[in-house]
Amino acid sequence: MAQERAEEHEAEDLPALTEDLVESVLTATEAGDAALLAELLEPLHGADIADLLEQVTTAERREILRLYGREMDGEILTEIDESIREEVIEQIPADVLAEAVRELDSDDVVDLIEDLEEVQQEAILEALDETDRAAVEQSLTWPENSAGRLMQREVVVAPLHWTVAEAIGFLQREDWLPDQFYHVILVDPAHHPVGYVTLGKILSSKPETALTAITEDSFRTISARQEEGDVAYAFNQYHLISAPVVDDDGRLVGVITIDDAMNVLDEEHEEDILRLAGVGEESSISDSVLETVRQRLPWLVANLFTASLSAIVISQFQATISALVALAALMPIVASTGGIAGTQSLAVAVRALATRDLTASNARRVVLREIGAGLVNGLSLALLLGVAGGLIFGHVELGVVLGLAMIVNQLVAALGGVMVPLTLERLGLDPALASGTFVTTLTDVMGFFAFLGLASWVLI
Amino acid sequence: MAQERAEEHEAEDLPALTEDLVESVLTATEAGDAALLAELLEPLHGADIADLLEQVTTAERREILRLYGREMDGEILTEIDESIREEVIEQIPADVLAEAVRELDSDDVVDLIEDLEEVQQEAILEALDETDRAAVEQSLTWPENSAGRLMQREVVVAPLHWTVAEAIGFLQREDWLPDQFYHVILVDPAHHPVGYVTLGKILSSKPETALTAITEDSFRTISARQEEGDVAYAFNQYHLISAPVVDDDGRLVGVITIDDAMNVLDEEHEEDILRLAGVGEESSISDSVLETVRQRLPWLVANLFTASLSAIVISQFQATISALVALAALMPIVASTGGIAGTQSLAVAVRALATRDLTASNARRVVLREIGAGLVNGLSLALLLGVAGGLIFGHVELGVVLGLAMIVNQLVAALGGVMVPLTLERLGLDPALASGTFVTTLTDVMGFFAFLGLASWVLI
């Protein structure tokens, strides 16, 4: 696949961040050749330059910025990952930073500064002219991760009574239009959005057509307080391209476009994967060793305590194990197969909760389905393992115990995998948060308990 | 969060798939009240109706389709999940199905039929008029999951030499324009795309402006053979809204829009999460018990074999365990903490490979970082566990063995978590595929081996 990709890039002849290019950039940087560096980086998209800065070491990054810092523009800045943003901003000359920030739309400035330290925030806000600064400061009054932070305030609106000709005339006269816009939003006199018209419709309709006659069916407004994850869901579910954002009184205050929503969808996915795995959600591949430890060690310590539960369960059966040491060798099989089953059930449930395919309406049915599947899986594994265990150890009862424990633990896994995220969601928490650790603890403890308990009852 | 969401929906007063609505729909269905059912469903977006059909049982679905089948339109059909698509299509009257399909753009028809059985495919193709059928059949000649399958063939093009006025005149004359389009693509006489102009630019520029003077910087073409995951990556990375698709000779054959790319991104996420968890990637919350078993049992059986490796390792140390049964109770702590650490490292690596932040350029540095973090985590956990183990069991050497085994296994976990996906990627396989099972097997086996091995050496 890696090779296939490389070929495609060649075929398209597009500037992209290839291994060779990174190599050349680092060579030019080491040689202190600013001209060559500029020549290499200039054709790249800002997003690729940002990726490059993330992929190199801190020392290399400092050198690149020393040589190329004056070329940093707004596009590159907005693409730089949070994990290195403060560091990069510190190293850009103040006048370059001010110039870069002035290029940006209000939503990009908000995104850039919302996680910076106050001193850096101030410096950037001061670079903006008064209107822009007011717009950014107002956006920052909306809650973190809300639609209000995500929206851009540059909106193209038209009064309800306009015709296509009037709209075209207006668009041709204005010179402040945003870089990217796809709809004209119709507003009533109180500035409430009531519909929108695609530019395609405006261009292909007769001049005398009323705008109200060609509005889109899919019109949906978004509250500025809405959580950005819900915004991304709405864009994906209803195939929105842009959507007007309204304040608490229903008045139009901005617009969100699909590229921002796509970005949020991608970030939410990152959170899901990292949270399921029990890693801090700010983990990044460019973290330092210490940052990595900070993101992971707390979860590992927590796991130490939950794992001690297994140890306590097992230690209750020391007499049983002493009597038949083979039990110690076999017990991880039951526990680990349960862990995998729990993870499977969990992944499907967490994903379905994220896409809202698992709701209160079908939760009961899904739980019953999980129990059914857990039972069938348990029986199949029990048969396989019971027969194998019985044959290998020449001990029929041991095979029966293995099989029964497997059935019990598969049921626990299937139920735990779906009940844990459902409960977290019901409690208003993120269903992915730590549910992996939770479910594997459950299947470990139950796996050891069922197996050793049955063994001490049947065998000893 | 669930409550917050409900409030938001209320505030917006938008039709949405609430629990109450599902309840009402099922009541109306049970009562056989087709009029009420239609009244309830009519205001919903097709995507919500499709979700509803996924959330109910097979029997309920059959009843809903019996009462509402004649209202099924193209929009609903394209939104229906693959897992129930064949079943739904079978239950829609043939004339309704034909009508629904005729409404759709070519890319939606391709998406609808590509996974159907041949008989159903034929039936749908026959419903199309000749031009549309040819377009669909041609799209189907591109490889599965390629840009060629994703693109729509309805493209708005303009010759290179046109002005804004000519473009507007053209758009006003044509009546076949696609529902959604955001750019006019400029082509040379051989039909190679050479740039594109946003509709916003066309509307806001003077009539005599040459189109070539207002093209977008971000222009990128996509090969029809490109893998759809790469297409989604390009849209997300470069903030594309639409992109022209070219054949092997570089000629324009279609266009992909961002809503399709967002959909692919979402599906890729689903695959990542499910594959990491070792579930068949077609798993869905609406699967039957048997389908669920089919998606999960193979991985569980595979795990049975890998888990047996742990059992074999442990059984080599039966004499050691007999001598000190506390070892049996403690060994899962080392293994399970290693499992969590491996999963953490794995999640970060798989995610970074998907976003292309982990590449050959920085792989070595990331591996070194992981080793460093594994060492620090291992030392911290060893200290904690070694002291606790030593105190609780009053056995200093046992504490030392626990601590040392923990350090070894944290290193194995950190390395395994990043090397396994990197190796899979290098081999041209999906880095998420089964890597969870792989890494936990590694940490289990190494955890037991290090702990019992050290114990038999130091303690016995």
TrEMBL record, chains A, B:
GO terms for cellular component: plasma membrane. Residues 214-271 form the CBS domain. It is found in: Cell membrane; Membrane. GO terms for molecular function: magnesium ion transmembrane transporter activity; metal ion binding. The chain crosses the membrane at residues 297-317, 323-350, 371-394, 400-424, 436-459. It is a multi-pass membrane protein. Keywords: CBS domain, Cell membrane, Magnesium, Membrane, Metal-binding, Transmembrane, Transmembrane helix, Transport. It comes from the Bacteria. Acts as a magnesium transporter. Belongs to the SLC41A transporter family. Homodimer. NCBIfam families: mgtE (TIGR00400). This is Magnesium transporter MgtE. The lineage of its organism: Bacteria, Pseudomonadati, Pseudomonadota, Alphaproteobacteria, Rhodobacterales. The gene is mgtE.
